[in-house]
Amino acid sequence: MAKIFLFSGSAAAFLGVALGAFGAHALKSKLAAEMLAIYQTGVHYHLVHALGLILVGILAERTGNSALVSWAGWLLLAGIIIFSGSLYALSISGVRALGAITPIGGLSFLAGWALLAVAALRQF
Fold first, then answer.
1. Residue 53, SS3 per DSSP
2. How far is CA 73 from the centre of its chain?
3. Which long-range contacts (C-beta less than 8 Å, at least 24 apart) are formed by 99-107?
4. Distance between CA atoms of 27 and 36, rounded to whole angstroms?
5. Are 105 and 41 in contact (CB under 8 A)?
6. Would you give the distance in Å from CA 92 to the centre of its chain?
7. Of 10, 27, 80, 85, which has the maximum CB count within 10 A?
8. pLDDT-derived band of residue 65, with 50, 70 and 90 as boundaries?
9. If we measure between CA atoms, which residue out of 44, 38, 52 comes closest to residue 95?
């Protein structure tokens, strides 16, 4: 599991930087300020949680791939896809209904961090 989360976190960070640059350069003149701000929120959470995935990979190696740590990683990854992905789609398409999906990704982030906290209390 450690390798999966280290790879996923690194790949997500790469993609987050690429999408951030795309937003800053290609979308800046094409999106309304409100939509660009939504896009940038997606990038911000994407990058923060990519680093979280890297942390999960390191902790998974250290804890012998604890189930709590693994679940935390999968939830952070799901959060990136659902939360940030829905914000990217919403900002580019303008379809506001996509915003209804975003809180599911936010709950995934919260659950992932909560499981990581529980794992820390149990393991360390």
1. helix
2. 10
3. 105/78, 105/79, 105/80, 105/81, 106/79
4. 7
5. no
6. 18
7. 80
8. confident
9. 38
DSSP 10-28: HHHHHHHHHHHHHIIIIIT
How many angstroms separate the CA atoms of 6 and 118, rounded?
Answer: 20
Identify the residue whose tokens are 């740590």. Answer: 69
Copy the structure tokens of residue 48: 């923060």
* pTM exceeding 0.90: yes
Least Cα distance to 46 among 27, 6, 19, 75 occurs for: 19
Q: Torsion angle of alpha carbons 22, 94, 102, 109, nearest 10°?
A: 10
- How far is the CA of 37 from the CAs of 7, 26, 118, 121, in angstroms? 28, 14, 33, 36
* CB 5 within 8 Å of CB 57: yes
What pLDDT, in 10s, does the model give residues 10-21? 999 999 999 999
Residue keyed to tokens 């979308």: 27
